Amino acid sequence: MPDQFGGLIRTLRERIPNSDKAVFSVHCHNDLGLAVANSLSAVMNGARQVECTINGLGERAGNAALEEVVMAVRTRQDYFPCDTRIDTTQIVSTSKLVSGITGFPVQPNKAIVDANA
């Protein structure tokens, strides 16, 4: 669950000597539909890198969707005191490019990038 995952990151940062000199990175899979939520909870608790993919593509149920993580961080600066430095004007076109190359269509109600978003 996101609060537990974020708590794990916080605990590691608190207990590991010199953890402030390390970049904590997370790589969440979407088996329970929580990859983005877990990733964002990790960021709130000190992770500085999220390994994610365009459209959430990945093995099994996929990975955290880059477009969702980026836009959550961008639109909720009150929660996330960081910046991705990603040009968000390119997210939709990148999503379409990846979909076209992979042959995996994006569902019409996909957050951020598709027709009903």
Label this structure with key terms.
single chain; 117 residues; mainly alpha; two-stranded parallel sheet; 2 strands; 39% helix
Topology:
Blueprint: H1 2-15, E1 25-27, H2 35-44, E2 49-51, H3 66-75, H4 91-102
Parallel strand pairs: 1-2
Helix pairs in contact: 1-2, 2-3
Q: Can you walk through the features of this model?
A:
Helix 1 packs parallel to helix 2 and helix 2 packs across helix 3 (66-75). Strands 1-2 form a two-stranded parallel ribbon. The longest helix is centred in the N-terminal third of the chain and has 14 residues, at 2-15. Helix 2 (35-44) links the parallel strand 1 (25-27) and strand 2. It is mainly alpha-helical and 117 residues long. The chain has one domain (2-84). The mean pLDDT is 96. It has four helices and two strands; from the N terminus they run αβαβαα.
Give the number of helices: 4
Sum up the overall morphology in one term.
Answer: globular
Give the structural class.
Answer: mainly alpha
Strand order of the largest sheet: 1-2
| Helical percentage | 25-40%
Summed over residues and divided by their number, the pLDDT gives a mean of 96
In the predicted model, the low-confidence regions spanning at least 5 consecutive residues are none
Strand-and-helix sequence, N→C? Answer: HEHEHH
Strand content: 5-15%
Q: Count every beta strand, where a strand is a DSSP E run of 2 or more residues.
A: 2
Biggest β-sheet, characterized?
2 strands, parallel
Give the CA-CA distance, first to last residue.
26 Å
Tally of separate domains: 1
Radius of gyration: 15 Å
